[in-house]
Amino acid sequence: MKKLLHFAFFIGLIIATGCSLQDENPQIIDSANNFKFQAKADMVVLGKKLNNPFAVENMRTAYQNLKASGTKTLDVDIKTNFLYVKFLPKNINEYDLLTLDSTLELFDYPLDYELKEGGTYYHDPQINAKDITWQYCAVPVDYKFPNIYHETIAELFIPSNEVNERPNEKTSFNNNLFNTYENPTEGNLNELFSNWN
Fold first, then answer.
1. Among 24, 26, 21, CA closest to 40
2. Which among 58, 149, 177, 187 counts the fewest CB atoms within 10 Å?
3. Residue 166 CB burial class (10 angstroms; 0-12, 13-18, ≥19)
4. Does residue 62 register a pLDDT over 50?
5. Given CA atoms 178, 183, 185, 187 in this order, what sign does their dihedral have?
6. Mean pLDDT value across residues 12-19
7. Contact assessment for residue 190 and residue 8, using Cβ atoms and an 8 Å cutoff
8. Does residue 156 contact residue 138 with C-beta atoms inside 8 Å?
């Protein structure tokens, strides 16, 4: 029960942090439709790349470990049901197209990295400062992508959707699965989970 409370608290904290980062996004559009940014001192500083617990191969390992431990669990076929992707809009029209899609929860920073220092925005240093930076999110595997450049970062399994018809077993299954995986709440990766939970 204690682990469950810690897990719930952490997800709430991550959601609040993510919302405040997005609400204070300093990307301002001038009259010439160019993006402008605040001083670099306000930029999020990333740390090390994290191992994504939602990656299909990691979920399969956690599930096998759970079953091997003798814990009573649901029979679930762990296969890709979401994709962790990043979009690179080339102009304000493409950016608007993404932000108007109510099925997307976009982040301007990668969720599979440690946040060393908080800030009000992130801009990939390999992207020209005058251009829009990568936009990160998780989408269902059957998502119809708009004609905007994107890359798939990882294939994911987000378990809540697979057991949503059995709500009494769902919470127990998810908690057991996450407790089995080492450091399931590390970094910002729960942003992917919380959006589809």
1. 26
2. 149
3. exposed
4. yes
5. negative
6. 42
7. no
8. yes
With 90 as the cut, is the pLDDT of residue 94 above it? yes
In sequence order, which residues have a C-beta less than 8 Å from that of residue 148 and are 6 or more positions away?
87, 88, 89, 90, 94, 97, 98
Helix boundaries (H) for 47-166: 56-68, 92-99
Lowest mean pLDDT among 57-61, 116-120, 146-150, 192-196: 192-196
Q: In 3-state terms, what secondary structure has residue 113?
A: strand
SS3 label, residue 135: strand
CA distance 155 to 61: 15
Alpha helices in the chain (DSSP H): 2-23, 56-68, 92-99, 167-180, 190-196
Cα-Cα-Cα-Cα dihedral of 169, 19, 33, 100, to 10°? 30
**In the chain, what are the domain boundaries?**
2-196
Mean residue pLDDT across the chain: 74
